């Protein structure tokens, strides 16, 4: 740890002792950005964690640096006891616990697995040439669903927001061995109301906090008889069928959901829904490995990267 970094951590400790958790958290996050493998800083990060889930994520990092850290192991045990979790009973009765806490998504996951096995058996029983054709078709279908269809396949793909560590200002987000620095255009909220002509997932590992491309249109831009639209590689294109300039607006939103609930709402949106989306405009997102290796920079060019704080479907496409 450099002298300046050590001084910053000392300032965080002083702020924490004065009861200023916000300032302490900000200093500790800054220290972790500069020295993500410093065990002492991670231990102090526990003191400014906002939830038990965040504490567990921090404890996981501590144990990755020191697998036998007694304090971290005891802290996890304390969290488990507070949550009413008994690891011995859990290990002895995994089937009972799974049955007691099963939910509809888990049932759906079982159905998905059954369908996969059914397809596998079917392909293996086909003649060799037909089998290759069927396998190719399945690969194409899976690729299309993964990159173009707005679904998480009951949680099998997509983001796990429970494991994100987010600063109060959303300017620093960390997940596993990666973190992101977010620069906002300002503090004002932007609002987008219109008809969705395209929605698809963003599947870029370096920018996994970005989840969706959403093309929101109004007036002539929402009418396919007047304007043709397309979204390719996170850019939008349009072409008018008339000689005059179309009326209305067209905006491609690159979505950064503020939380898991917002993400779940985004998964409900379909083409031709009328939606209202509000949030803060983002100027750039910089991605790093935990060792500060720079992974890339996301910056808009005619689109709207947005920290989405609220979303509602005003009118469903099926109505």
Give a verbal description of the structure.
The protein is an alpha+beta fold and 319 residues long. The protein is 39% helix and 28% strand. The protein has ten helices and ten strands. It has helices spanning 3-17, 21-34, 39-45, 52-65, 70-82, 87-92, 94-100, 104-124, 128-148, 260-266; strands at 165-166, 172-175, 178-201, 212-217, 227-232, 235-240, 250-257, 274-289, 294-299, 304-315. It has a five-stranded mixed β-barrel. A two-stranded antiparallel ribbon has the order 5-6. Helix 1 (3-17) packs antiparallel against helix 2. The protein is globular, with a radius of gyration of 24 Å. Residues 88-109 have low confidence and may be disordered.
The number of helices is: 10
User: What level of helicity do the residues show?
Assistant: 25-40%
| Major sheet attributes | 5 strands, mixed, barrel
Question: In what range is the share of β-strand residues?
Answer: 25-35%
Radius of gyration: 24 Å
Which structural class matches the secondary elements?
Answer: alpha+beta
Strand order of the largest sheet: 3-4-7-10-8
Helix and strand run: HHHHHHHHHEEEEEEEHEEE
Mean pLDDT metric: 79
Number of strands: 10
Distance between the termini: 60 Å
Instruction: Label the overall shape.
Output: globular
